[in-house]
Amino acid sequence: MSRVYSPPIRNTVKPHMRLAPGRVAVVQVLLGLLLLALLSRAIYLQVVQQDFLLNQGEARFRRALVLEANRGVITDRNGEPLAISTPVQSIWASPVDMNPVPTAKLAALSRLLELPQAELQQKFADKKREFVYLKRQISPQLAQQVMALGIPGIAKQQEYRRYYPAGEMLSHVIGFTGVDGKGQEGLELTREKMLAGKAGSRTVLKDRRGHIIEDVAAIEPPRDGQTLALSIDKRIQYLAFRELSAATEAFKAKAGGVVVLDAQTGEVLALANTPSYNPNNRAVLEPEMRRNRAVVDMFEPGSTMKPFTVAMGIDAGRITPDTWFDTRPYMIGPATVRDSHPNPSLTVSGIIQKSSNVGSSKIAAMFSPEQMWTFYRQSGFGISPQSGFPGESSGRLRDWQGWRPIEQATMSFGYGVTVSLLQLARAYTIFTHAGALLPLSFTKLAVPNPGRQVVKEDTARKMRQMMIAVTEEGGTAVRAQVLGYHVAGKSGTARKLVGGRYASDKHIGLFVGFAPATNPRLIVAVMIDEPSIGGYYGGTVSGPAFSNIMAGSLRILGVEPDAPSNNTLIPEQQISEVREET
């Protein structure tokens, strides 16, 4: 048996390539130190710097999204919507998460959003910003087209846009909201907290393309705003706005206002102004259009104040409707008090019907300035009507201690005191509600608020009866008649102050009245500011608008006539105008 030969194994490592034992130890130590350093760094990052790193990561990928609350609906007293919110989309970008946008996509984005490319690039340039709006309140369809471009860092969010079905006829009452959904004018502003609700939130993680990966906290749902039911009747509002617009146009007036009140509750059923504006399209919106004249403008009310002077005298027992007065012109110091339509003598009823300045000034002279001032204040003059409407005027009633005799006389027929149309309409509730001044309300009332007694119920009844004559033949406002109903009221014509002097060619024409006079249901106050053609007396310019508004409103509410057979309208050509300039 042969043996296999195996050559001896030789050490092929050359002597100069062998590591000395000391060098091996050094390498091992270095590797150990490196491993220790890596381990220490890992412990430092995972333990000591954990919160910092988590925050940095979340800062880049964690987003808190606002879940918009749906703003509350505003309705009229019958549930008709007057302001509603419709869902829209807003496009925003996170520049810190964006890469340079390809030219083609930038051009497409510019076209869809109707924004210049330079403006978009400027928004994208600030890499420190995490949120910037590109376009707000666009249609969901357009937002979908934007998102289809697939540009990283661009996202959409749902918002709500306010829509006003009634348009310009209710713009001064409701107001409008800004692009951020907050109320800017009218009841949208005063009832902001009630209507706005409370926004919710959602915290999510997003990837670099802006896509939501997951929710990292419980979603807090939004709480929608409450529904606001107004006292406004949309049908009466439409009628009032239409007739006011027609009157303003017919007499080429600078402006106009109308207020319709429930005579027994103080609820505002309609309030309109001209000029007006469309809250759905505010591209061209002049300050004059936004002005809520019926609430904020102050003016001297002229002869519409005379019923309060007469009521003061009757309630104090110093006069009766049949008391006679010498109504020829007379002097108070160097000033002469006279009537535009002189009568040698008139009863108190005649003073109301013929609108006698002389008669009302002599009734006022029966009282001290303090007594007259107190009565006017109790009637709501010189104090805010507290309707809750923004910017409402309190008018002006100077302190009685500074009154001169001639000033007390002129205040009795509406000069030297200023009011708003809303304030004046409210004051007439004294005559319609058993002598009590009613609080105003722009919201629908379940139970009427109690009024404050100013005069006796019998005084209010006598005033109603006397004021009917104003709209009958020989009165100053025959054009304010309503077929089938007794109408009571008072016209007023006041010169306007221009540069500290009363202008002879600038007037305010007024009529405030109520019907049915035997059991009042509605109060309507109409103001025409600076009529320039066709007349300027209150009964002439405001009377017809009052008649149309009152007639239509009574029909809408189904109010039974109180003069079905003995009330006929006097033909226009047979109406003899009674001049009245106070």
UniProtKB/TrEMBL annotation:
What this protein catalyses is: Preferential cleavage: (Ac)2-L-Lys-D-Ala-|-D-Ala. Also transpeptidation of peptidyl-alanyl moieties that are N-acyl substituents of D-alanine
List UniProt keywords, sorted A-Z: Carboxypeptidase, Cell cycle, Cell division, Cell inner membrane, Cell membrane, Cell shape, Cell wall biogenesis/degradation, Hydrolase, Membrane, Peptidoglycan synthesis, Protease, Septation, Transmembrane, Transmembrane helix
Q: Where is this region: Disordered?
A: 562-582
Per the Swiss-Prot or TrEMBL record, the active site comprises 303 (acyl-ester intermediate)
Which organism is the protein's source?
A: Vogesella facilis
Source domain of life is Bacteria
List the biased-composition ranges (Polar residues). Answer: 564-576
Instruction: Cite the annotated pathway.
Output: Cell wall biogenesis; peptidoglycan biosynthesis
Location relative to the cell? Membrane
Q: Which residues cross the membrane?
A: none
- What region holds the Penicillin-binding protein dimerisation domain? 68-215
Pinpoint the Penicillin-binding protein transpeptidase domain residues.
256-550
Gene name, per UniProt, is ftsI
The family database entries (Pfam families) matched by this protein are listed as:
PBP_dimer, Transpeptidase
Q: Which InterPro entries match?
A: Beta-lactam/transpept, Beta-lactam/transpept-like, FtsI_transpept, PBP_dimer, PBP_dimer_sf, PCN-bd_Tpept
Q: What is this protein called?
A: Peptidoglycan D,D-transpeptidase FtsI
Under Enzyme Commission nomenclature, its number is: 3.4.16.4
- Explain the purpose of this protein: Catalyzes cross-linking of the peptidoglycan cell wall at the division septum.
Family, as annotated = Belongs to the transpeptidase family. FtsI subfamily.
